[in-house]
Design brief:
Largest sheet: none
Protein name: Retrotransposon gag domain-containing protein
Order of helices and strands: HHHHHHH
Distance between the termini: 93 Å
Helix content: over 70%
Shape: rod-shaped
Oligomer: single chain
Number of strands: 0
Radius of gyration: 27 Å
Strand content: under 5%
Structural class: mainly alpha
Organism: Cephalotus follicularis
């Protein structure tokens, strides 16, 4: 009877060691690219103040797109981007939203429409002319 108990203990110990090895292997595979993304902090985009500077606006749009890709947030692009507008840009946005409600104008609900409207409003006019060539 003692030998059966000893064999059972040895078998349990071996199984526990195997389980421990498997746990370590699973943790190692999740700490690869996908695991490291969980611990990665996406830097916040710099606010856009409405200055008519193509570089500033393009940087905001680029940073927002990278942020959406990294966080895999695509449904709230317009509302999230609006939080990064300040000063004249925020005033423009607030006026746009209020005018939408009063005039029956279609709301800006997609990323592409928001990008177009921001560029129409804040790109220096000569930049838009050059791009149309």
């Amino acid at each position: 009877m003692i030998s059966f108990t000893d064999n059972l203990r040895k078998s349990i110990k071996a199984n526990q060691e195997d389980i421990s090895i498997l746990k370590k292997a699973l943790q190692g595979s999740s700490s690869g690219a996908a695991g490291s993304l969980r611990n990665f902090n996406v830097p916040e985009p710099k606010q856009f103040n409405g200055k008519r500077d193509a570089k500033e606006l393009e940087n905001l749009l680029w940073d927002m797109e990278l942020c959406f890709q990294a966080t895999r947030v695509f449904e709230e692009e317009v509302s999230i981007t609006s939080m990064y507008l300040s000063n004249d840009a925020k005033l423009w946005w607030r006026t746009w939203v209020q005018d939408d409600a009063c005039s029956g104008r279609p709301r800006i609900e997609t990323w592409l429409v928001l990008v177009k409207e921001l560029k129409d409003q804040f790109f220096p006019k000569n930049i838009g002319w050059r791009e149309s060539l």
